[in-house]
Automatic annotation (TrEMBL):
This is FemAB family PEP-CTERM system-associated protein. The lineage of its organism: Bacteria, Pseudomonadati, Pseudomonadota, Alphaproteobacteria, Sphingomonadales. It comes from Sphingobium phenoxybenzoativorans. Signal peptide: none annotated. It comes from the Bacteria. NCBIfam families: pepcterm_femAB.
Length: 356
């Protein structure tokens, strides 16, 4: 007797990131999905894995006729200090399962966990998307900030609450210069400013290769914006473009940035340039609950929305915790701030590769 035909059946395969046709198919499918993010793209996981010496895994669910029914980008994080984890999406603030139906969602989640077990991971983590049944959901650590861009510069300025609007105007009156691009000079400046900022926060820096790999992989869908005064760099940000949204992702600033209001000028000009590019959404990215960056984004008129992450731990194992605000890391963060900057920049990339 023949088995009954199930039109809803799905299968899951791992796509080789060297297979250009398969990758192009996934990229094209993601463009049809308004809920996709830059972190679902094969270009993202391939770039961050190469830069950090980790492994990228791209899972694709297919329906009975071979069409794409879902995608799950993963990065296998291996660290001597922080253990092993399978993360979607690695080194990102979003990702997770993107699927057409619950059956594809379940198939991708099951395959993800089987891979995590096969690679000896203590934790699998989905940063966004639906939470698989039985996984632990955490929605109390991070907020996302996003809202539509206004129709023109004046409307954009007026959308900022009055007190912070005055700060933006101060920046606009400080004879600052704004430029955008992705050439070697801008990359060098941005990484230096980024390192200074991260050191003040007390967290290790990502390797320089991470920024280069993402810029190269994304091409016109990523760039650096820089604000300077009298030739001295003050503030910069590496932004990602996906669909109709711009996301300023990795930011850096000199100590003098606050006095010159260059951060305010930077983000306002980025809003302007993104609108001219055709973007409709400004995604201010993720900030940790209760932190200064979260409060600062609210002064721009953005409301924080809790971000839900789904996690699963191996039997007898605790969920991996790499949040620098966790009590176990507070003393280490304060110690890191006191390290000389050259030492922090030398050791930091080795540590940060294992955070993901």
């Amino acid at each position: 007797m023949n088995a009954s035909f199930d039109p809803a059946a799905v299968s899951v395969e791992e796509i080789r990131l060297t297979d250009r046709m398969a990758v192009a198919e996934v990229e094209a499918w993601l463009k049809t999905r308004p809920d996709s993010t830059p972190f679902h793209r094969p270009a993202w996981i391939a770039a961050v894995a190469r830069a950090n010496g980790q492994r990228a895994i791209l899972l694709v669910a297919r329906d009975v006729v071979g069409g794409i029914a879902g995608v799950l980008p993963l990065v296998l994080i291996r660290s001597a200090l922080f253990g092993r984890a399978l993360v979607s999406s690695g080194f990102a603030v979003d990702g997770g399962i993107l699927a057409l139906n619950p059956r594809a969602e379940a198939a991708l989640a099951d395959t993800c966990w089987r891979l995590a077990e096969a690679h000896g991971c203590s934790t699998a983590e989905l940063r966004g998307g639906p939470a698989p049944e039985g996984w632990t959901v955490k929605a109390d650590a991070h907020l996302g900030f996003s809202k539509p861009l206004e129709a023109d510069d004046e409307a954009q300025l007026l959308s900022i609450p009055r007190k912070h609007r005055a700060e933006v105007r101060r920046g606009m009156g400080n004879d600052l210069t704004f430029e955008m691009g992705s050439d070697r000079r801008l990359r060098d400046i941005h990484y230096r400013l980024y390192c200074e900022s991260v050191h003040r926060l007390g967290t290790p820096v990502f390797p320089r290769a991470l920024f280069d790999e993402v810029l190269d992989a994304f091409g016109p869908d990523a760039d650096i914006a820089l604000v300077s005064k009298d030739g001295t760099p003050l503030s910069s940000v590496l932004s990602l473009y996906h669909g109709d949204a711009v996301m300023p992702y990795w930011q850096g600033a000199a100590l003098a940035a606050r006095a010159e209001r260059s951060n305010e000028y930077l983000y306002f000009r980025l809003m302007t340039s993104a609108r001219e590019r055709g973007c409709r959404i400004f995604d201010f990215g993720r900030s940790k609950v209760g932190t200064g960056p979260a409060a600062w984004k609210k002064t721009w008129g953005f409301e924080g929305v809790p971000l839900s992450y789904a996690l699963r731990a191996a039997d007898g194992q605790a969920l991996r915790d790499v949040n620098p605000l966790s009590p176990q890391y507070r003393r280490k963060v304060e110690m890191w701030k006191k390290l000389p900057l050259p030492v922090a920049n030398l050791v930091g990339p080795w540590l940060a590769r294992g955070l993901g």
